[in-house]
Design goal:
By secondary structure, this protein is an alpha+beta fold. It has one domain. The chain has helices spanning 2-31, 64-88, 92-115, 136-165; strands spanning 39-42, 45-52, 118-126, 129-130. A four-stranded antiparallel sheet has the order 1-2-3-4.
Length: 166
């Protein structure tokens, strides 16, 4: 019974993250139909068009069709692992974080399947320094991972305090 409730929260957030990611990519791509990249929005932020055939920061981007297949298969295996973790997770924070990661991963897999690459468009910079372009899916993955790490650190600290009190 508990597994069903943890799945509901996590999968709901995964669906929402996937939808936000795909909608944002569609909206930004539509903007670029009439403009040339980059579109300067602030002194530190542009919209750009970047196609990432690799993984984070374009690592392993020379794999061609096999790279797309291998990276997509790997992402789907990670999603399967995260779903099994989600089913047994008791922390609502971790359930939400897992949903973010799952939705983000599936958003990028959808791009790979449809286009052979992931569509990135968020470009932050300061002076001459640019963070590599990314998208909403990448943001969900990073935020979800950050929340899991924070939860783990806080939970470990609580456990350590309980052992000291014993």
């Amino acid at each position: 019974m508990f597994g069903e409730y943890s799945l509901i929260l996590g999968i709901s957030i995964a669906v929402l993250a996937f939808f936000i990611d795909q909608l944002s990519k569609w909206l930004v791509a539509d903007i670029f139909l009439n403009h040339q990249a980059p579109i300067v929005l602030t002194p530190f932020f542009n919209l750009v068009e970047a196609w990432n055939t690799g993984v984070s920061f374009s690592l392993f981007d020379n794999g061609g069709i096999w790279g797309t297949i291998i990276l997509s298969a790997f992402a789907l295996a990670v999603v399967a692992f995260l779903l099994s973790w989600l089913k047994n997770e008791q922390s609502r924070l971790v359930q939400a974080a897992l949903g973010m990661i799952i939705g983000g991963a599936l958003g990028n897999v959808a791009d790979r399947i449809r286009f052979g690459a992931v569509y990135d468009f968020l470009d932050f910079y300061y002076n001459g320094w640019h963070w590599p372009a990314f998208n909403a899916a990448d943001s969900f993955i990073c935020i979800g991972a950050f929340l899991i790490i924070v939860h783990s650190l806080l939970n470990h600290k609580k456990q350590s305090l309980k052992e000291v009190v014993k």
